[in-house]
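Lecture 7 notes: from sequence to structure.

We start with a single chain of 402 residues. Read the sequence below before looking at the structure.
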Amino acid sequence: MTDLTGWLEEFASTQRGPGEIAEWVASTAQAVHTAVDLPADLHALVRDAVEQHWLAFLDGVTSDVEADDALVPAAHDLAVDIARHHLGLPVLLKIYQAAQEASWDYAVGVVGDASADLDHAALLVWFWTKANRWFSTSVERSVAVFTAETDRIRRRGDTQRYEVVAALLAGDTVGQSELSAQMGGHPITGVTHLALIAHAMNADSLDTLEPAITDLASSVPGARLAFVRPGGRELWAWISTRTGQVTLPAGPLDATAVRITVGGPAAGVEGFISAHRDARTAQRVALSPARTVAVTWYGDVTALTLLALDHPAAERFCRDMLGGLGEPGHSHLRHTVRTVLTSSANADAVARNLSVHKNTVRYRIQQAERLLGRPLATRAGDLLLALDYYEAFLDDGSADGG
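Now the structure, written as tokens:
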């Protein structure tokens, strides 16, 4: 019986002939192009990768040593170029699949033509084992190269987008067309903008920022959404729509993980800028440890953001306005006061809203006025603002004692 090792050595030597190499490259490259529609400028690189893979494979025909860690240069370049053409990982995998199928067909043909005194089964197993190991290793390394290049391209694009938007927000002149182009074609004029800033309250929440904003934007019919990644624990976004008034449901967001502030709606380039600035300003309130709200609109906390510029003075104002009502354990009284001051309904309706008897409402009002030292109607606007500040920055969550 013919020695398998000797036959393989002769096979590898023969296959290195110029004619044999050219035939192999042509047939395998054709199989790839039949299976995958690639841009013309990648065809030569495919042929180079096929040839280099084949020569490297032949180098290891008689060796049991694992393939070298380095991917053949043309295959490395091919993975990079596929990423740069934005063709996607499935295209790269299809190339290898087509080449592997062509290689297997070739191996079956070689075994079939081998001399009769050779162990055909053993030769077929050898080809199968060696080729599978080779392709698995090459695919794994090509995917790693592709992924690294894709990440690099994304980071570069994110950086360029952030630099343009940051320059605009800082007061530099940026053309509308340049801004729109950097934002991936996001409309700037003829629409109104909502600006959102999502902040991860802990490192584990970073990956939830984009899904959280996307979920909010999905509730706005016809909205366009664009992200800017400034780094750190933040993600910026703009929702643009031709509808002037927009609402965003808070949904199931966990305020201990993610806080989102919203500015706008505002129109045009100026609105693009001002909405973001308002969302930033709203963070003075939204990121307070005492707050338990996941989505904060600037328009709902405008006065509080001004108070937050001077917390010591604001706290003195709050303590003076609330008096004893600001002591721990009076959350039900504060809630009742807020409901009464913000409701135009009669006592019965207020009681139903609070799920208590109307006499309970009267009793709580009497208690609150005793703690305040004055009627609720006295400086009612300041009282509501003090309640807002207390809940946003001072509330320790203490429950009523009775």
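The chain has three domains: 4-153, 183-300, 310-394. Keep this in mind for problem set 3.
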